Amino acid sequence: MPITVAFTAASIYAVAITRGIKLEERIRQYSRGASDPNILLMIWIFVLAGAFATGAKSMGAIDATVNLILSLLPLLAPPPRTLHRGVLHLPLHRHECRHGHRPRTHRPRAR
């Protein structure tokens, strides 16, 4: 559904649910509220964000960024070192995982 259809439906609903006031006054209240600077700024941010997202998607920037990150991820993240009870744990410190278990490949130095 295009944004204009959703905006029109929401506007009609907002005017329609106000009871006990004449239609002319309801429309006047809606217009005063919609012209508030904060509301207008929020609408502009929404419209410009949608335009940016559409432009980025149409020129392939999203796919290019995802492919770049996926190609760099193996270089940035070290491989995990341990399997504990069939669950893969990434160690927080050199010789421990987040549960305090030591990997099986670790042998403490003799003192």
Detailed description of the structure:
The chain is mostly helical and 111 residues long. 58% of the residues lie in helices and 10% in strands. The protein contains four helices and four strands. A two-stranded antiparallel ribbon has the order 1-2. A two-stranded antiparallel sheet has the order 3-4. β3 and β4 (96-97) form a beta hairpin. α1 (3-16) packs across α2. The chain is elongated and about 85 Å long. The chain starts with a helix and ends in a 14-residue tail after the last strand. The model has no long low-confidence stretch (mean pLDDT 77).
Quaternary organization: single chain
Instruction: Tell me the structural class.
Output: mainly alpha
End-to-end distance, in Å?
71 Å
- Radius of gyration, in Å, reads 28 Å
| Tally of helical segments | 4
Placed side by side, the strands forming the largest sheet appear as 1-2
Following the backbone from N to C, one meets helices and strands in this order, namely HHHHEEEE
The total count of strands amounts to 4
Main sheet properties:
2 strands, antiparallel
**Strand content range:** 5-15%
Shape: elongated
- Quote the average pLDDT: 77
Q: Helicity level, as a percent range?
A: 55-70%
